[in-house]
Write a structure and sequence with these properties.
Blueprint (H helix, E strand, L loop, with lengths): L1 H5 L2 H11 L6 H14 L2 H27 L18 H23 L1 H8 L12 H26 L2 H4 L22 H18 L4 H18 L18 H11 L10 H6 L3 H18 L1
The structure holds zinc ion (ZN) (2 copies).
Length: 291
Protein backbone atom coordinates (compact mmCIF):
# COMPACT_ATOMS: atom_id res chain seq x y z
CA UNK A 1 0.00 0.00 0.00
CA UNK A 2 2.88 2.28 0.79
CA UNK A 3 4.20 1.91 -2.79
CA UNK A 4 0.79 2.81 -4.21
CA UNK A 5 0.87 6.14 -2.31
CA UNK A 6 4.33 6.93 -3.66
CA UNK A 7 3.24 6.68 -7.31
CA UNK A 8 -0.19 8.28 -6.86
CA UNK A 9 -0.55 10.43 -10.06
CA UNK A 10 -2.42 13.18 -8.16
CA UNK A 11 0.42 13.34 -5.66
CA UNK A 12 2.97 13.63 -8.53
CA UNK A 13 0.86 16.31 -10.28
CA UNK A 14 0.59 18.31 -7.04
CA UNK A 15 4.39 18.14 -6.64
CA UNK A 16 4.96 19.26 -10.24
CA UNK A 17 2.58 22.21 -9.78
CA UNK A 18 4.69 23.28 -6.82
CA UNK A 19 7.71 23.64 -9.15
CA UNK A 20 5.94 25.99 -11.61
CA UNK A 21 7.26 29.56 -11.28
CA UNK A 22 4.96 32.45 -10.37
CA UNK A 23 3.82 34.86 -13.08
CA UNK A 24 6.31 37.79 -12.72
CA UNK A 25 3.61 40.27 -13.84
CA UNK A 26 1.07 38.93 -11.36
CA UNK A 27 0.87 42.01 -9.06
CA UNK A 28 0.29 44.73 -11.71
CA UNK A 29 -2.06 42.41 -13.58
CA UNK A 30 -4.03 41.73 -10.39
CA UNK A 31 -4.38 45.48 -9.73
CA UNK A 32 -5.74 46.10 -13.26
CA UNK A 33 -8.07 43.08 -13.18
CA UNK A 34 -9.55 43.92 -9.74
CA UNK A 35 -10.04 47.56 -10.81
CA UNK A 36 -11.80 46.44 -13.99
CA UNK A 37 -14.13 43.93 -12.32
CA UNK A 38 -15.09 46.39 -9.58
CA UNK A 39 -15.79 49.33 -11.95
CA UNK A 40 -17.49 47.67 -14.92
CA UNK A 41 -20.38 45.24 -15.30
CA UNK A 42 -19.90 41.74 -16.69
CA UNK A 43 -21.77 42.80 -19.84
CA UNK A 44 -19.46 45.78 -20.38
CA UNK A 45 -16.34 43.63 -19.84
CA UNK A 46 -17.55 40.77 -22.05
CA UNK A 47 -18.75 43.02 -24.90
CA UNK A 48 -16.83 46.32 -25.02
CA UNK A 49 -13.78 44.91 -23.21
CA UNK A 50 -13.57 42.00 -25.68
CA UNK A 51 -13.94 44.37 -28.65
CA UNK A 52 -11.16 46.57 -27.25
CA UNK A 53 -8.85 43.57 -26.66
CA UNK A 54 -9.52 42.36 -30.20
CA UNK A 55 -8.81 45.75 -31.85
CA UNK A 56 -5.76 46.56 -29.67
CA UNK A 57 -4.08 43.20 -30.21
CA UNK A 58 -5.05 42.92 -33.88
CA UNK A 59 -3.52 46.23 -34.91
CA UNK A 60 -0.80 46.04 -32.23
CA UNK A 61 0.39 42.71 -33.67
CA UNK A 62 0.21 44.12 -37.23
CA UNK A 63 2.30 47.18 -36.33
CA UNK A 64 5.88 45.76 -36.38
CA UNK A 65 5.63 44.27 -39.92
CA UNK A 66 3.72 47.40 -41.06
CA UNK A 67 6.71 49.51 -39.97
CA UNK A 68 9.24 47.11 -41.54
CA UNK A 69 8.08 48.07 -45.06
CA UNK A 70 9.59 51.56 -44.49
CA UNK A 71 12.96 50.21 -43.27
CA UNK A 72 15.20 49.08 -46.19
CA UNK A 73 17.29 46.86 -43.84
CA UNK A 74 14.21 44.72 -43.05
CA UNK A 75 13.59 43.85 -46.71
CA UNK A 76 16.05 40.95 -46.43
CA UNK A 77 13.55 39.25 -44.07
CA UNK A 78 10.56 39.68 -46.44
CA UNK A 79 9.59 36.24 -47.76
CA UNK A 80 8.35 37.43 -51.16
CA UNK A 81 10.70 40.39 -51.58
CA UNK A 82 9.62 40.79 -55.22
CA UNK A 83 6.07 41.61 -54.07
CA UNK A 84 6.31 44.59 -51.67
CA UNK A 85 3.27 45.95 -49.81
CA UNK A 86 1.37 48.72 -51.61
CA UNK A 87 -0.61 51.60 -50.12
CA UNK A 88 -3.70 50.70 -52.23
CA UNK A 89 -3.53 47.05 -51.15
CA UNK A 90 -3.25 47.89 -47.46
CA UNK A 91 -5.99 50.55 -47.58
CA UNK A 92 -8.39 48.16 -49.36
CA UNK A 93 -7.63 45.51 -46.74
CA UNK A 94 -8.18 47.96 -43.85
CA UNK A 95 -11.60 49.04 -45.20
CA UNK A 96 -12.89 45.46 -45.45
CA UNK A 97 -11.47 44.72 -41.98
CA UNK A 98 -13.47 47.58 -40.47
CA UNK A 99 -16.65 46.16 -42.02
CA UNK A 100 -15.77 42.64 -40.84
CA UNK A 101 -14.78 43.69 -37.29
CA UNK A 102 -17.82 45.86 -36.62
CA UNK A 103 -20.58 44.24 -38.72
CA UNK A 104 -19.67 40.53 -38.54
CA UNK A 105 -17.41 39.98 -35.53
CA UNK A 106 -18.98 42.47 -33.08
CA UNK A 107 -22.39 40.70 -33.20
CA UNK A 108 -20.52 37.43 -32.53
CA UNK A 109 -18.61 39.07 -29.63
CA UNK A 110 -21.99 40.14 -28.16
CA UNK A 111 -22.68 36.44 -27.52
CA UNK A 112 -19.76 36.28 -25.05
CA UNK A 113 -21.73 37.70 -22.11
CA UNK A 114 -24.68 35.32 -22.63
CA UNK A 115 -22.29 32.36 -22.95
CA UNK A 116 -20.58 33.17 -19.63
CA UNK A 117 -23.94 33.67 -17.89
CA UNK A 118 -25.37 30.43 -19.26
CA UNK A 119 -22.37 28.36 -18.11
CA UNK A 120 -21.68 30.27 -14.87
CA UNK A 121 -18.16 31.31 -15.98
CA UNK A 122 -16.54 33.40 -13.19
CA UNK A 123 -14.86 36.81 -13.78
CA UNK A 124 -13.34 37.37 -10.30
CA UNK A 125 -9.62 37.47 -9.49
CA UNK A 126 -9.86 34.83 -6.72
CA UNK A 127 -11.02 32.03 -9.02
CA UNK A 128 -8.59 32.82 -11.86
CA UNK A 129 -6.46 29.76 -12.74
CA UNK A 130 -2.62 29.90 -12.70
CA UNK A 131 -0.86 31.17 -15.87
CA UNK A 132 0.39 27.71 -16.86
CA UNK A 133 -3.14 26.28 -16.47
CA UNK A 134 -4.46 29.00 -18.82
CA UNK A 135 -1.56 28.28 -21.20
CA UNK A 136 -2.38 24.55 -21.37
CA UNK A 137 -6.06 25.29 -22.00
CA UNK A 138 -5.09 27.71 -24.80
CA UNK A 139 -2.92 24.97 -26.32
CA UNK A 140 -5.97 22.67 -26.30
CA UNK A 141 -8.02 25.44 -27.99
CA UNK A 142 -5.27 25.92 -30.61
CA UNK A 143 -5.14 22.19 -31.44
CA UNK A 144 -8.91 22.02 -31.90
CA UNK A 145 -8.99 25.22 -34.00
CA UNK A 146 -6.09 23.98 -36.11
CA UNK A 147 -7.87 20.69 -36.92
CA UNK A 148 -11.13 22.50 -37.81
CA UNK A 149 -9.25 25.08 -39.87
CA UNK A 150 -7.25 22.44 -41.76
CA UNK A 151 -10.25 20.41 -43.00
CA UNK A 152 -12.56 23.38 -43.63
CA UNK A 153 -9.85 25.41 -45.34
CA UNK A 154 -9.01 22.45 -47.59
CA UNK A 155 -12.73 22.11 -48.40
CA UNK A 156 -12.96 25.85 -49.20
CA UNK A 157 -10.33 25.25 -51.90
CA UNK A 158 -12.69 22.87 -53.72
CA UNK A 159 -13.13 24.29 -57.25
CA UNK A 160 -16.94 24.41 -56.93
CA UNK A 161 -16.93 26.74 -53.90
CA UNK A 162 -13.51 28.45 -53.97
CA UNK A 163 -14.57 31.35 -56.21
CA UNK A 164 -17.66 32.11 -54.10
CA UNK A 165 -16.02 32.38 -50.65
CA UNK A 166 -12.30 31.78 -50.13
CA UNK A 167 -11.04 33.60 -53.26
CA UNK A 168 -11.37 36.90 -51.38
CA UNK A 169 -8.74 35.89 -48.77
CA UNK A 170 -6.42 34.94 -51.65
CA UNK A 171 -6.65 38.44 -53.12
CA UNK A 172 -3.15 38.89 -51.67
CA UNK A 173 -0.60 36.36 -53.02
CA UNK A 174 2.04 38.03 -50.80
CA UNK A 175 0.23 38.55 -47.48
CA UNK A 176 0.86 41.15 -44.77
CA UNK A 177 -0.40 41.10 -41.15
CA UNK A 178 -3.80 42.72 -41.77
CA UNK A 179 -4.69 40.03 -44.36
CA UNK A 180 -5.20 37.59 -41.43
CA UNK A 181 -8.91 38.49 -41.13
CA UNK A 182 -9.42 39.72 -44.70
CA UNK A 183 -12.10 37.21 -45.66
CA UNK A 184 -15.65 36.71 -46.93
CA UNK A 185 -18.22 37.05 -44.08
CA UNK A 186 -19.22 33.40 -44.52
CA UNK A 187 -15.59 32.32 -44.14
CA UNK A 188 -15.25 34.46 -40.99
CA UNK A 189 -18.29 32.71 -39.52
CA UNK A 190 -17.51 29.13 -40.64
CA UNK A 191 -13.80 29.15 -39.75
CA UNK A 192 -14.72 31.13 -36.60
CA UNK A 193 -16.54 28.05 -35.24
CA UNK A 194 -13.11 26.44 -34.77
CA UNK A 195 -12.28 29.29 -32.39
CA UNK A 196 -15.41 28.71 -30.28
CA UNK A 197 -15.19 24.91 -29.93
CA UNK A 198 -12.12 25.23 -27.70
CA UNK A 199 -13.89 27.85 -25.59
CA UNK A 200 -16.87 25.53 -25.09
CA UNK A 201 -14.60 22.74 -23.87
CA UNK A 202 -11.85 24.53 -21.95
CA UNK A 203 -13.28 27.76 -20.46
CA UNK A 204 -13.29 27.73 -16.65
CA UNK A 205 -12.76 31.50 -16.20
CA UNK A 206 -13.44 34.60 -18.30
CA UNK A 207 -9.69 35.25 -18.65
CA UNK A 208 -9.46 32.26 -21.01
CA UNK A 209 -11.57 34.10 -23.61
CA UNK A 210 -9.09 36.96 -23.77
CA UNK A 211 -5.97 34.79 -23.42
CA UNK A 212 -7.10 32.56 -26.30
CA UNK A 213 -8.15 35.46 -28.55
CA UNK A 214 -4.79 37.18 -27.97
CA UNK A 215 -2.80 34.00 -28.72
CA UNK A 216 -4.88 33.27 -31.84
CA UNK A 217 -4.51 36.85 -33.14
CA UNK A 218 -0.75 36.98 -32.55
CA UNK A 219 -0.37 33.59 -34.28
CA UNK A 220 -2.53 34.34 -37.34
CA UNK A 221 -0.96 37.79 -37.83
CA UNK A 222 2.52 36.28 -37.49
CA UNK A 223 1.85 33.68 -40.20
CA UNK A 224 0.41 36.37 -42.51
CA UNK A 225 3.10 38.98 -41.72
CA UNK A 226 5.15 38.20 -44.84
CA UNK A 227 8.35 38.39 -42.77
CA UNK A 228 10.36 35.48 -41.39
CA UNK A 229 12.73 35.74 -38.42
CA UNK A 230 13.60 32.08 -37.84
CA UNK A 231 15.98 32.50 -34.89
CA UNK A 232 14.34 35.50 -33.25
CA UNK A 233 10.65 34.63 -33.31
CA UNK A 234 9.82 32.87 -29.97
CA UNK A 235 6.68 31.27 -31.50
CA UNK A 236 9.03 28.90 -33.36
CA UNK A 237 9.90 27.30 -30.00
CA UNK A 238 6.43 25.68 -30.07
CA UNK A 239 6.72 22.15 -31.55
CA UNK A 240 5.19 21.88 -35.05
CA UNK A 241 4.55 25.66 -35.23
CA UNK A 242 3.85 26.49 -38.91
CA UNK A 243 5.11 30.07 -39.08
CA UNK A 244 5.12 32.78 -41.75
CA UNK A 245 7.09 30.87 -44.41
CA UNK A 246 4.61 27.97 -44.27
CA UNK A 247 1.45 30.07 -44.74
CA UNK A 248 3.11 32.54 -47.08
CA UNK A 249 3.68 29.58 -49.42
CA UNK A 250 -0.07 28.80 -49.29
CA UNK A 251 -0.88 32.35 -50.46
CA UNK A 252 1.74 32.18 -53.19
CA UNK A 253 0.95 28.65 -54.40
CA UNK A 254 -2.81 28.33 -53.57
CA UNK A 255 -2.37 24.54 -53.09
CA UNK A 256 -1.24 22.81 -49.86
CA UNK A 257 -0.32 24.01 -46.35
CA UNK A 258 -3.96 24.32 -45.23
CA UNK A 259 -3.49 24.27 -41.43
CA UNK A 260 -3.52 27.50 -39.43
CA UNK A 261 -1.09 26.96 -36.55
CA UNK A 262 0.67 23.59 -36.70
CA UNK A 263 2.24 21.56 -39.50
CA UNK A 264 1.25 18.02 -38.46
CA UNK A 265 -2.10 17.79 -40.34
CA UNK A 266 -0.42 18.78 -43.61
CA UNK A 267 2.42 16.31 -42.94
CA UNK A 268 -0.05 13.49 -42.13
CA UNK A 269 -2.24 14.17 -45.20
CA UNK A 270 0.66 14.89 -47.56
CA UNK A 271 -0.71 18.36 -48.37
CA UNK A 272 2.74 19.86 -47.69
CA UNK A 273 4.20 17.95 -50.71
CA UNK A 274 4.55 20.99 -52.99
CA UNK A 275 6.00 23.04 -50.12
CA UNK A 276 8.65 20.39 -49.46
CA UNK A 277 9.49 20.22 -53.18
CA UNK A 278 9.76 24.02 -53.35
CA UNK A 279 12.08 24.10 -50.30
CA UNK A 280 14.23 21.32 -51.76
CA UNK A 281 14.54 23.33 -55.02
CA UNK A 282 15.59 26.48 -53.10
CA UNK A 283 18.13 24.49 -51.06
CA UNK A 284 19.48 22.92 -54.27
CA UNK A 285 19.94 26.39 -55.81
CA UNK A 286 21.74 27.61 -52.70
CA UNK A 287 24.09 24.61 -52.75
CA UNK A 288 24.87 25.10 -56.47
CA UNK A 289 25.65 28.78 -55.82
CA UNK A 290 28.06 27.97 -52.97
CA UNK A 291 29.93 25.34 -55.06
ZN1 LIG B 1 -4.11 33.25 -45.18
ZN1 LIG C 1 -6.51 29.22 -48.79
Amino acid sequence: MENATEIDPMHVAAKLVGFMPENPLKDPFQAVWVHMTSHYTKFQIATWGSLLVHELFYFGACLPAFIFQFIPFMRRFKIQADRPETFEGQWKCFRLLMFSHFCIQLPMICGTYFFTEMFGIPYDWESMPAWWNIGLRCLGCAMIEDAWHFWLHWALHDKRIYKHIHKLHHNYPAPFGMVAEYAHPLETIVLGFGFFFGILIFTNHFILMWAWVVIRLVETIDVHSGYDFPYLNPLHLIPFYAGARFHDFHHKNFVGNYASTFTYWDILCGTDKQYKEYNAKIEGKKLTKSD
